[in-house]
Design goal:
The complex is a heterodimer of chains A (261) and B (168). Chain A is α+β, with helices and mostly antiparallel strands and 261 residues long. Chain A has three helices and twelve strands, in the order αααββββββββββββ. Helix content of chain A is 33%, strand content 31%. The longest helix of chain A is centred in the N-terminal third of the chain and has 42 residues, at 56-97. Chain B is an all-alpha fold and 168 residues long. The chains are: A alpha+beta (261), B mainly alpha (168).
Chain lengths: 261, 168
Amino acid sequence: MKTVLTAGAICLGLIAAYSTGILRPVEHVISFVAQPVFSLTYTFIDSISPLYQATDSTLLKENIDLKDQLVKVVRQNTDLQTQVQQYQEYRDQLDFAHTQDYTVVAAKVISRVGQQQIGQILMINQGSAQGIQPGYAVMYGSGIFLGVISQVRESSAEVTLLTDDVSQVQGMVQNDAHTTGIVSGQFSTSLLMTYILKDQPIAVGDMVVTNGQDQYIPAGLVIGTVQTVTAPSSELFTQATLNQLLRYGNNSIVSVIIPQS
Amino acid sequence: MIRHLLLAVAWAGCTTTIEVAIFWPNPGLAYYINAPFIAAAGLAFLLPWPRSVWYSLALGLMIDWFSPLPFGTYLILCSTMVCLIAFLQQTWLKQMSLLSVAVISAIALAIVSLLLWGWMLTSVYIGWTAFNWFSPSAWWMWVGGFIIECVLISILTKFASRSYEQLF
């Protein structure tokens, strides 16, 4: 009984010490030693895990889809060239309006917590020591929105992916009307854009980006493309499912966007 | 003492690495096998009381640092499991037959799993951490993982034998 009580007291003592931050140096040392091992084993498992391996038919379909998308993007690019000229005039005003400036911290994915059906969290090797805080946006590649920092330790952090059921971010369709809505994870596999006003246009293939209204998430990060649009007459709002432009499992290096001010 | 300490650190490090880097990223049933619980049960069977408790605390501390669950979850659960197994061994199933080990493991795992679920649901209720891991469609995987854990503990304990202490 004495041993049980002593063990219980040690547990509570450690929990209290962790909560007050006394154990930070120990945490730092353990993370420093453990992370390279996690990283190596994660990379190995990731390369052989059947969940993230694609078959020839899926790759072929993906290739066709990407080619279709490329045609659309080239067309959009021509339109954008015209618009860029107009945007130059407004840039000075926009710069003035941009009170927030962002820097980026590169991070390596050291583990994936949860799986496709029940949870979407990535563990990265940068934490509060690098200035990362909960709520910061995480992107992959050139501006593709991956998720949001949900928990931070001194030298590691957890990223809740956008496809996670608990994720929510304000999105904007890249069309003339700048249609807005709330993008949330759906069944941890896809994205659902809701609360779109019925008088606002949205079409299959439209690109959806962040609109900058969330506290730490800058505008313009790519969320995905519109896959289907449904507008039931009994509902007040239109909703759309989105297709993300990245494949999980290959995103070993990500970037955390840190607000400067 | 130093050898004990080194062994505790090595044991905790290996188990944490196995759990974080191998079990968590894997799909399906593998995700539901809780390596720290298997290690804690192994400690309870292989080491004499009360040394197993101190090892389980080291194990719980290591895994808590990398677990998405609230800090303290594995500290409490691993040491609880070791205490439960020791209690069952000393009062009820005293022999080390494969069946006895499996029964004790199953009882201890069931109680600790209930505590884990209770703790997670309490955390959700209080609002400490947002969990969305409760998937009704995957309930059988929890049961499958539970059974595999019992089998692994039994095999590990049976084949590792009690002469483990002679290493020191």
